[in-house]
Structure formats: C-alpha cells, structure tokens
Design brief:
single chain
C-alpha cells in the first residue's frame, strides 16, 4: 500500500487545486480552491476557453458577479470529478465586513443551486478574522456550511468552534515558513521536523482541543511544504494537499502510522477556553506569527482577485 492509500485509511484526503483535470488520478473525496489557485488555472491554455465562455456569457454584469460565476463554474467542474464537497472562497477584500461576506456567500450558494448542486456539497471559504467568523456563524444557522481559512492561531480555532463552523483550515506550511524565517541561520530543519514542526504542533493542539471538548467542527490541515508535515498529521479529520505532494505520497511505500487519535485527545487534561471579541482580538494580537500571516494572506488573496479582474477586463 502506498502512503496516499495508507493515509486515506484514517484521514479524508482533499485536493488543493483549481486544476480539475488533475483530480481523477488521486481520487480525493473533496477539493479546495482559492483565488490564487483559480488565477493559476485560468492562465493555462486548457482552461482559457472556460474563462472566455464565462466572461462572454455574462458580459455587462458587475465584475464581482462575473468572478463568482467563474468560481462556481470551476466548482461545478470539480464536483463532477469528486464524490464530496468543494470549497469556494468569498472575496478576501470583504474579510472585515460581516454583512457583505454573508451576502456574497448567499449568492455563491444560489449560483450553485441554479446549476443543480446541493447545498451540502459546497463549503464557503472565509478568512478567519473576527468579522469572518461572525459571518460564518450566521451562515451556518441558515444551513450554509463554511470553511474558515487563513487560520494560524489557537484563538481563531477556538472562536470558530464557538461559532459552530463546519470546518477550519489551519495553515501548516505558512506557520513553518514564519518560524524558519525568524530563526534564520539558527534554524535546525531536522530538529523542527515531523511532530516538532511548528505548523504540525499548531494543528495538533487544535485537533486535541476540539476532540477533548466535543467540538464538531472538522479540522483540515492545509498549506503543506513537504510530505513529512502531512504524515505527522495522519489521523487529522481532513488534510488538503497540493497535487505535487499527492504524487509524492502515491509514489512512496514507506510505512505510515496514525499520529493523531481522537480517543487519546478525549482523555487529555486540557483547559476549557472561550473568547469574546475583545479577548479574541487581544489573543490574536499577542501572536505575532498569526497576526502577520493573516494580514499577509488576505493581502495576497486580494491581490490575486485584482489580477483575475484584469484578465477578465482584457478579454
């Protein structure tokens, strides 16, 4: 059994790509997209017609509507290839506007429903700001499920659990990147790998907290830099993995052991934690890595949304 098949025994594997033509070979259950992945996909020759058709069909509509229709078009193509759910992202420029995020999410769901897609097959991706988490709480009450992304801090995960969001995506690789950059020449790769990787430690803490306190929110580790980070989180509810790393897992027959165990977490002596808005904002502010990475991630997704708009305007 290769490592990918071994991993699938105790973790739901999700493909982290907008390139739906790559999906079938890895047979993931779910798939995630974001503005950067969609931007990357539409610049490939095989996806140019899809972009052109969507833009031509909806020419004259507001740019934000055309973008949403393009995201949903990709989502529908992905859903035709996988048995599970696709995550579709709300514009990152709305990350600090609860009402606008709710409205945009509702429209994305309506567009999917118009294509005959059941509401349970879509997760709306929202940045894990305080405003984003409040928007997700409102959407979940309406039966619209959410995936809270750009999650770097324990306080973000706790607040998402309180809001009863469907799923969170803690970013393993970006946490690792920050600590590695901070350490500079003093970084010891071997000593900070596997279970000692700071990104792996972050997801492990969140997973154990959720299982210990019976929080139903799914934990989906994301943004991996190497296979070691993935195997160190075997047993996590879900892991979303880029095609290159899926290929490496499929090509390896090295043994793979389960690393995270819900039953073990339930027996742990962990403190109960809750946050109101002031407590959340202070805890996030105390975490330099999470503060920097959240802001950087929103800026990057917003910049790619602008690039996508420019591509559309050029057609």
């Amino acid at each position: 059994m290769n490592q990918l098949d071994a991993l699938k025994q105790f973790t739901t594997v999700v493909a982290d790509t907008g390139d739906f033509k790559q999906l079938a070979q890895f047979q993931p259950r779910d798939a995630t997209t974001n503005p950067s992945l969609i931007l990357k996909a539409v610049q490939k020759p095989e996806y140019a017609p899809l972009l052109q058709e969507t833009v031509a069909h909806w020419k004259g509509r507001a740019m934000d509507e055309i973008i949403d229709r393009l995201l949903v078009r990709f989502g529908c193509e992905i859903l035709a290839t996988i048995p599970g759910r696709v995550s579709t992202e709300v514009d990152a420029r709305l990350s600090f506007d609860t009402d606008a995020t709710v409205a945009r999410a509702e429209r994305i769901i309506e567009l999917y429903q118009a294509e005959g897609v059941h509401i349970d097959r879509v997760l709306i991706k929202i940045a894990s700001t305080w405003e984003g988490i409040q928007a997700a709480e409102k959407l979940e009450r309406k039966g619209i499920h959410t995936n809270l992304t750009l999650l770097f801090a324990f306080c973000q995960a706790v607040a998402c659990g309180q809001a009863k969001v469907q799923l969170i995506s803690p970013f393993v690789g970006r946490i690792y990147d920050w600590y590695k950059k901070q350490a500079g020449a003093g970084w010891d790769e071997a000593a900070r790998s596997g279970a000692n990787d700071p990104g792996v430690q972050s997801v492990t803490q969140i997973y154990n907290h959720y299982k210990r306190f019976g929080i139903a929110t799914e934990v989906m580790g994301a943004s991996f830099r190497n296979v070691g980070q993935i195997t160190a989180l075997a047993g996590c509810d879900l892991l979303t993995i880029a095609p290159e790393l899926l290929a490496q897992l499929a090509a390896s027959d090295a043994p793979l052991q389960r690393a995270l165990h819900a039953d073990a977490a339930k027996a742990m002596d962990l403190p109960a934690v809750n946050y109101d808005e002031a407590g959340f904002r202070f805890a996030l502010n105390e975490d330099a890595m999470a503060t920097e990475k959240l802001a950087e991630g929103i800026r990057a997704f917003a910049a790619d949304a602008v690039k996508l708009e420019k591509l559309i305007l050029a057609l």
